[in-house]
């Protein structure tokens, strides 16, 4: 799926992908006119409008469904075997045509599966590529020009007649999904190689086509016709062949659409330049051998929109210039399609197509820029006669020196190809036949010789005799008749032709058939008494060749017959130059024949000796003679009149010469103006191409600015919501911007932007902001300092280097984090800690004053501390006591199971016990009887529970009970 866009295309692309589903099942390749000197933001913009994966093409990617591929700037794109290939940008006259180039590659690679979309844009890029898409049976969808921001590209595509659908951009995505879901063959192509129906059904469809249009496609290759029919069915979402046949019967417009599809031609200027180069060599030889002043006639059947015919005309005119001969060129170009003929006759083509297909020399010599396009010059168009004509059914042109029939025969079956090769009758001996690269003469080697094997140029053999009757030129095969036996009667049509020829020769007066300009096309009978070659260069103009006495009347008669389309008779004229000059009756009659494409006239010369139908009264009138005096007077008057007329004619000719000279001067001026116009047109094309790129770039920048605006809004709201005073300065420590809360710390107004930081007054006590900012720049790391305002509010000042995304150092960011609450809480905590420390010292002093030995144990029964009495009584030290388990002291005298059990239950169960008696001889204290009391206490930091164990030396006093 290829999408081509240019100026205004970004808006159309955004709308397109907003209406595309998340799983369309196809890939999209976006080709747009981009500024070659700037990186494109198009992929990033597309990602914001579609959930599909968007990739900028790097080259070599295999196309995958549900992916959008975007062409990078200053590159062209082709596709080969489903892989995208980047190629060098091809610019003609400063104007690129990347859309045309990819459309053509897509048609060649994907065939009937190719779908292309033309969106908003200036110019006509893409239109030329549509021809290849249609020729490959692909589908063309165009944005409705009225809905496009710039309608140049959509309008050009619509005017070409190649668009299958013209819809608003919002309706294109669902339409494409429907088209993509059309039936496929096993090899994945959109149309099968053979029609999926019987030949009888197809013949019925072709019969409907023949009845409606008058053209028979029955002998075209059925596979080709079938694929075109299937394509129309797919576009209409119809799968039933019988239903489509009935649809054709009810809808003549669909019949016309099918007819237009069958006529889509692949054409262009100088297709296969090598073949045209060989043709130029061949026609140069033929023109050099032609008689001076003769006419070189050529025919281009199936000319489509005229590029082939104009290419041939340019080749012939170049060849004439080389050989330096004075020959008249007459080219007939015909086609079935009336629209194609009209376009060919206009001779106007897009600038991009002409510049891409025609070299600069021929472009300057044969083309004129008009309204953003190029038109074939008048001198070329005047040499070509375009007409609607069926080469397979209508009578062919004859007496031709060249026939260029390229890429017509490949669409016909073998039988029809053989009939078409009866071009032999149309060609003069040694005439040339120019065929396409895939066509041949099908074994007619007895009729044609090989002129150039590689470029398919053939020459009619002068000695060849055609062995088939002319009747075989008809499209419908004639019924087979048994061969005539020897001695049998000749056919009726041969007798009739023989009789007509004999009667015409013996009884018809001398006549010529001429054009309105007087050019002689055909001569009958002996006209030497009335016409003679004029002095100077040879001419076949009847007015130049007419004898004195007939010339003026003949010119007047032709003008009158052409103006009023009536028969004009001039009687009693005398042709001077003979000894005896009988009167001549001159008749000019328009030749009305629908097969003739221009006005022709029959000029008849009749003298008294050949008049057969004179009446008796007429004979008597002729025998009378006028009075001799009267006759002499009339003779003198006639001589005077003729002399005056001759003088007038000479003056008219002199005036015509002057006008011709003035016309030549005007033409010279026009050529200079034309050259200037062409330069201006080239400049305008380059400017338009640049404008398209700038418009696309502006659209991307506008979208980028909108995104940047949203990001700035988000950042402002984020900073405002954090309520953190922030100040941005550049590398020269000038203020760049600040947040709305910054004035609470630094006295700032909007006019301070750009001022040096050291000039700004702050509300801080003894702080130099510029010094801290400069330190951050020099050391390239953050600087932190607790600062206080004059009203006693505390902030944490952070000076951090400002770095861009490219890691460039651009200044410093100063932030003021509000730590007033934290500072206050920290001061309160310090005061509390001091109180706790005092309380801890107080407790230790109290314990040290007790007369009993006291141990403080943690929940694991490790000794936390002991009082002075314990150390004195048992001879221990703090180093050997603190941090050890109670049961590890001394020689294990405290390792008593019952004591261990009681102590282990004090903290978990919040119990206490008193009067636990222990008798033991201690190494340093001697024999002792001890009474132990234990209870749970809470530590001073309230984070853990401790166990207080009091040890009292009780002598021999009896032990008291244990409580818990």
What structural class is derived from the secondary structure elements?
Answer: alpha/beta
As a percent range, the share of helical residues equals: 25-40%
Number of domains: 6
Task: Count every beta strand, where a strand is a DSSP E run of 2 or more residues.
Answer: 36
Largest sheet features: 7 strands, parallel
CA radius of gyration is: 54 Å
* CATH hierarchy, class of the largest domain: Alpha Beta
Instruction: Give the termini separation.
Output: 89 Å
CATH topology of the largest domain: Rossmann fold
Number of alpha- plus pi-helical segments:
26
User: Which architecture name of the largest domain does CATH use?
Assistant: 3-Layer(aba) Sandwich
Q: Tell me, what's the shape? A: elongated
**CATH superfamily assignment of the largest domain?**
Methylesterase CheB, C-terminal domain
Average pLDDT confidence is 79
Sequence of strands across the biggest β-sheet: 3-4-2-1-9-10-11
Question: Your description of this structure?
Answer:
This protein has 964 residues and is α/β, with parallel strands linked by helices. Helix 7 (199-213) runs parallel beside helix 9 and helix 11 (273-289) packs across helix 12 (307-323). It has a seven-stranded parallel sheet with strand order 3-4-2-1-9-10-11, with helices on both faces. A seven-stranded mixed sheet has the order 17-13-12-18-19-21-20. The protein has a five-stranded antiparallel sheet with strand order 23-22-26-25-24, with helices on one face. The chain is 38% helix and 21% strand. It is elongated and about 190 Å long. The chain folds into six domains: 1-181 and 642-712, Rossmann fold; 191-264, Chemotaxis Receptor Methyltransferase Cher, domain 1; 273-473, 3-Layer(aba) Sandwich (Rossmann fold); 500-611, PAS domain (Beta-Lactamase, 2-Layer Sandwich), CATH 3.30.450; 723-818, 2-Layer Sandwich (Beta-Lactamase), CATH 3.30.450; 850-953, Beta-Lactamase (2-Layer Sandwich), CATH 3.30.450.20. The protein contains 26 helices and 36 strands.
């Amino acid at each position: 799926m290829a999408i081509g866009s240019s100026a205004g295309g970004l808006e159309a692309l955004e709308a397109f992908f907003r209406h595309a589903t998340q799983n369309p099942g196809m890939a999209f390749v976006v080709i747009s006119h981009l500024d070659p000197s700037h990186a494109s933001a198009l992929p990033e913009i597309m990602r914001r409008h579609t959930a599909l994966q968007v990739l900028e093409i790097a080259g070599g990617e295999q196309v995958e469904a549900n992916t959008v591929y975007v062409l990078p700037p200053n590159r062209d794109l082709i596709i080969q075997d489903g892989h995208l290939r980047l190629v060098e940008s091809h610019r003609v006259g400063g104007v690129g045509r990347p859309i045309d180039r990819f459309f053509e590659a897509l048609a060649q690679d994907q065939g009937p599966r190719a779908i292309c979309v033309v969106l908003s844009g200036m110019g006509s890029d893409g239109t030329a590529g549509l021809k290849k898409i249609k020729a490959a049976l692909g589908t063309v969808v165009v944005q409705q020009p009225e809905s496009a921001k710039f309608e140049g590209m959509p309008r050009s595509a619509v005017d070409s007649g190649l668009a299958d659908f013209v819809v608003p951009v919002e309706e294109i995505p669902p339409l494409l999904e429907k088209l993509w879901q059309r039936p496929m063959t096993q090899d994945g192509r959109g149309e099968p190689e053979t029609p999926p129906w019987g030949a009888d059904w197809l013949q019925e469809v072709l019969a409907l086509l023949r009845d409606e249009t008058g053209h028979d496609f029955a002998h075209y290759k059925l596979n080709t016709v079938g694929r075109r029919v299937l394509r129309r069915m797919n576009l209409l979402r119809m799968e039933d062949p019988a239903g489509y046949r009935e649809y054709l019967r009810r809808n003549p417009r669909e019949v016309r659409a099918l007819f237009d599809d069958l006529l889509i031609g692949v054409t262009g200027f100088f297709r296969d330049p090598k073949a045209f180069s060989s043709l130029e060599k061949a026609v140069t030889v033929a023109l050099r051998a032609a008689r001076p002043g003769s006419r070189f006639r050529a025919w281009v059947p199936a000319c489509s929109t005229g590029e082939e015919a104009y290419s041939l005309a340019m080749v012939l005119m170049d060849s004439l210039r080389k050989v330096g001969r004075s020959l008249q060129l007459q080219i007939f170009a015909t086609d079935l399609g009336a629209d194609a003929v009209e376009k060919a006759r206009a001779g106007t083509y897009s600038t991009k197509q002409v510049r891409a297909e025609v070299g600069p020399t021929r472009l300057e010599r044969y083309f004129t820029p008009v309204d953003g396009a190029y038109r074939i010059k008048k001198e070329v168009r005047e040499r070509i006669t375009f007409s609607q004509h069926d080469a397979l059914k209508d009578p062919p042109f004859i007496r031709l020196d060249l026939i260029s029939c390229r890429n017509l025969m490949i669409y016909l079956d073998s039988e029809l190809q053989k009939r078409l090769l009866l071009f032999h009758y149309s060609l003069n001996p040694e005439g040339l036949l120019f065929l396409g690269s895939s066509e041949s003469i099908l074994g007619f080697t007895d009729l044609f010789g090989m002129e150039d094997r590689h470029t398919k140029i053939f020459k009619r053999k002068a000695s060849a005799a055609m062995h088939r009757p002319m009747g075989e030129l008809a499209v419908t095969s004639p019924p087979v008749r048994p061969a005539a036996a020897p001695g049998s009667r000749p056919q009726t049509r041969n007798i009739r032709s023989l009789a007509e020829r004999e009667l015409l020769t013996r009884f018809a007066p001398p006549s010529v058939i001429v054009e309105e300009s007087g050019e002689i096309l055909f001569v009958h009978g002996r006209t030497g008494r009335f016409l003679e070659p004029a002095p100077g260069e040879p001419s076949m103009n009847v007015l130049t060749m007419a004898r004195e006495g007939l010339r003026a009347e003949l010119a007047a008669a032709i003008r009158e017959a052409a103006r009023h389309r009536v028969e004009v008779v001039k009687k009693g004229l005398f042709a001077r130059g003979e000894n005896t000059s009988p009167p001549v009756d001159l008749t000019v009659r328009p030749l009305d024949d629908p097969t003739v494409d221009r006005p022709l006239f029959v000029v008849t010369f009749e003298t008294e000796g050949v008049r057969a139908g004179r009446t008796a009264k007429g004979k008597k009138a002729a025998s009378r003679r006028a009075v001799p005096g009267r006759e002499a007077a009339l003779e003198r008057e006639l001589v005077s009149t003729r002399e005056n007329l001759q003088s007038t004619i000479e003056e008219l000719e002199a005036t015509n010469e002057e006008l011709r000279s003035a016309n030549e001067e005007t033409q010279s001026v026009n050529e200079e103006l034309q050259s200037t116009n062409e330069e201006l047109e080239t400049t305008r094309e380059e400017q338009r191409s640049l404008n398209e790129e700038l418009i696309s770039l502006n659209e991307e920048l506008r979208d980028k600015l909108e995104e940047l605006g949203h990001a700035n809004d988000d950042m402002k709201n984020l900073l405002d919501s954090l309520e953190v005073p922030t100040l941005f300065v550049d590398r020269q420590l000038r203020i760049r911007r600040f947040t709305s809360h910054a004035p609470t710390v630094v006295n700032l107004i909007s006019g301070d932007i750009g001022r040096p930081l050291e000039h700004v007054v702050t509300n801080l006590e003894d702080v130099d902001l510029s010094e801290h900012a400069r330190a951050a720049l020099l050391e390239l790391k953050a600087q932190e300092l607790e600062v206080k305002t004059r009203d006693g509010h505390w902030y944490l000042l952070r000076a951090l280097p400002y770095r861009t995304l490219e890691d460039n150092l651009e200044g410093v960011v100063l932030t003021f984090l509000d730590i007033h609450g934290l500072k206050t809480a920290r001061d309160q905590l310090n005061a509390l800690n001091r109180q706790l420390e005092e309380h801890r010292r107080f407790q230790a002093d109290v314990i040290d004053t007790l007369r009993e030995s006291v141990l403080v144990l943690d929940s694991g029964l490790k000794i936390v501390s002991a009082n002075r009495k314990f150390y004195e009584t048992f001879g221990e030290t703090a180093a050997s006591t603190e941090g050890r388990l109670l049961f590890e002291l001394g020689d294990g005298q405290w390792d008593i199971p019952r004591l261990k059990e009681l102590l282990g239950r004090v903290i978990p169960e919040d119990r206490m016990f008193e009067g636990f008696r222990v008798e033991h001889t201690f190494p340093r204290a001697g024999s002792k009887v001890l009474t132990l009391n234990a209870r749970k206490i809470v530590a001073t930091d309230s984070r853990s529970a401790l166990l207080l164990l009091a040890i009292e030396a009780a002598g021999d006093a009896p032990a008291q009970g244990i409580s818990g």
